[in-house]
Amino acid sequence: MFTPYELCVGLRYTRAKRRNHFISFISLTSMIGIALGATALITVISVMNGFERELRERILGVASHATISGFGRALEDWESLAAEAEGHSEVVGVAPFVESQGMLTHAGQVRGVLIRGVSPLREPRVSEVGQFLIEGTLESLVPGEFNVLIGRDLALRLGATVGTRVMLVAPQMRITPAGVLPRMRRFVVSGIFEAGHAQYDSSLAVIHIEDAQRVFRLGEGISGLRVKLTDMFDAPRVSRELAREFGGRYWLRDWTQHHANFFRALKIEKTVMFVILTLIVAVAAFNLVSTLVMVVTDKESDIAILRTLGASQSSILSIFVVQGTAIGIAGTIAGVAGGVALATHVETLVPAIESLFDTKFLSPDIYYISAVPSDMRWRDVAAVGSVAFVMSVLATLYPAWRASRIQPVEALRHE
Questions:
Q1: DSSP label of 124
Q2: Nearest residue to 321 via CA among 400, 401, 391, 406
Q3: By C-alpha distance, which of 14, 45, 39 is closest to 385?
Q4: Which residues contact 188 (CB under 8 A, 6 or more apart)?
Q5: Contact, 113 vs 204, CB < 8 A?
Q6: Residues 6+ apart with CB under 8 A from 349
């Protein structure tokens, strides 16, 4: 579409000094607007990616990439099943668990909790609960001593500290002379963890797997196996492969199913934020439209002369498309460069600003994530750059079309 002639004239119009300085100011404003919009969009999306990554790592630090369980029954011969699962090339580790609902009581406080029985030797293969401990150790879970690890928020609500005795009330019933009563067992708090997610910090209690088997009367059975993979994003595919290997005898669920609503909400929030911030680029594109319309009005006599010299309507159209596209490309390049620079350094810039003004944007007393994370992805950068460029090109079409429709006789009548 563009020949060297239209390209040269269009670029000359872009950099030439205009008689009307207001047009130059609007053109510069359009360029800056596109750059700021692209910078803001890349930075915000990168920060949202960072928060999503932090939440995902904290959730999966306590949960697992995938679980293997029976269909409404406990797993008995789980050692051979674990060995078979570990034979998969993408499985890092496998650990057994027992899981059930219960209540913890202390000093008149009663809280519903999720009781999880784990093996202290095998649990580090699939989770990072030991690294989240702020008091105590995972090795304190010794079979027969009935120790328990609880979340920080749960400890605060129960008024419990390390060494406190709490009562576990299990849903299984036992028959006594006084009637049917729930099973109760006294546990000692041997550690407190903080995973950074309310679901676990306020309602998870971890005990030894053998203690859990005794409390919930499972014998040698377990609730299932927790599986850790080399790449968490391959969990759906690996789960399907394992299910085929097991011949459909077991139920496999991955983390995308366990926390589907939560991560779907994060994805929707990210999409909405992308659309909202794209409006900044759209406003800058509208400024580009007004800039080119004023340029066309200012250059009517030049357009008429070019037409009388033999320039076609498509040539005039190309000249102004080149001019608007050049402004858009300059703004897009500046915005992408600024966004990449800001997104990659936001984790150091924010602490510097906090130190400078002696403030804390995300107080650790209120927020679980007290630092502003960033996870810049080139896929998002490419999407932002493409959107900014396409909007800039679309903004040039109407003014360029209007310029191509100018009649030389009408434009030169009052010259």
A1: G
A2: 400
A3: 39
A4: 145, 146, 147, 148, 163, 164, 165, 166
A5: yes
A6: 342
Which of helix, strand or coil describes residue 185? Answer: strand
Alpha carbon distance 243, 205 (integer Å)? 29
Domain layout of the chain by residue ranges: 4-57+263-412, 64-258
Q: Which of 278, 290, 287 is nearest to 32 (CA)?
A: 287
DSSP, collapsed to helix, strand or coil, labels residue 334 as helix
Nearest to 278 by CA among 266, 270, 290, 267: 270
Question: Residues with Cβ < 8 Å from 219, sequence gap 6 or more?
Answer: 74, 213
Instruction: Give the SS3 label for residue 95.
Output: strand
Taking the whole predicted model, whether its pTM rises above 0.70 is answered as no
Helices 4-15/313-357 angle, 10° precision: 40
List phi, psi (to 5°) of 364. Answer: -65, -20
Specify which residues 170 forms β-bridges with. 183
Burial (CB < 10 A; 0-12, 13-18, 19+), residue 229, is buried
- Quickly list DSSP for 248-263: T-SEEEEHHHHTHHHH
Report residue 263 as tokens: 């991560």
Query: What does DSSP assign to residue 242?
Result: H
pLDDT in tens, the chain (415 residues): 556 766 677 666 666 555 556 666 777 777 888 888 899 889 989 988 888 887 777 777 777 888 988 887 888 888 888 888 888 889 989 999 999 999 999 988 999 999 999 999 998 888 888 888 999 999 999 998 999 999 998 999 999 999 999 999 887 766 655 555 677 889 999 999 988 777 788 889 999 999 999 888 888 889 999 999 888 888 888 988 888 888 878 888 888 887 777 778 878 888 888 888 888 888 877 778 877 787 777 777 777 777 777 777 788 888 888 878 888 888 899 999 999 999 998 888 888 887 888 877 776 666 666 678 888 899 989 999 998 888 888 888 888 888 887 777 665 665 5
